[in-house]
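Subgroup meeting minutes
Present: P.N., E.W., G.H.
Scribe: E.W.

1. P.N. recapped why we're keeping a running log of single-chain structure predictions: easier to compare across weeks, and new members can see raw inputs and outputs side by side.
2. G.H. added today's entry (115 aa).
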Amino acid sequence: QVQLVESGGGLVQAGGSLRLSCAASRSMLTINVMGWYRRAPGKQREWVAAIDSGGTANYASSVKARFTISRDNAQNTMYLQMNSLKPEDTAIYYCNALWFNREYWGQGTQVTVSS
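Output recorded in log:
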């Protein structure tokens, strides 16, 4: 199994930045794909970004050029650098890992962007 723990959420003004972290309980060298999802109030969960073991990243169009996903396999941690934040980025952000064809989720971290 894989336990994932997110951190770094908080309250920020529009235009500001936050950096989310996701710590994994086992070596990330065995985790091929990791990603971030979010759930805004009253909306369904949506995919935000993903990164594979080779460092190839993909982004939802709504966050491209503003968010950057990265992973540090030595620290077993994945990051999401969020810049130019908008009120519509307000959501609970979840870390996701695909390990041996099973998905694992963190508990989520709240990000609130005020206008």
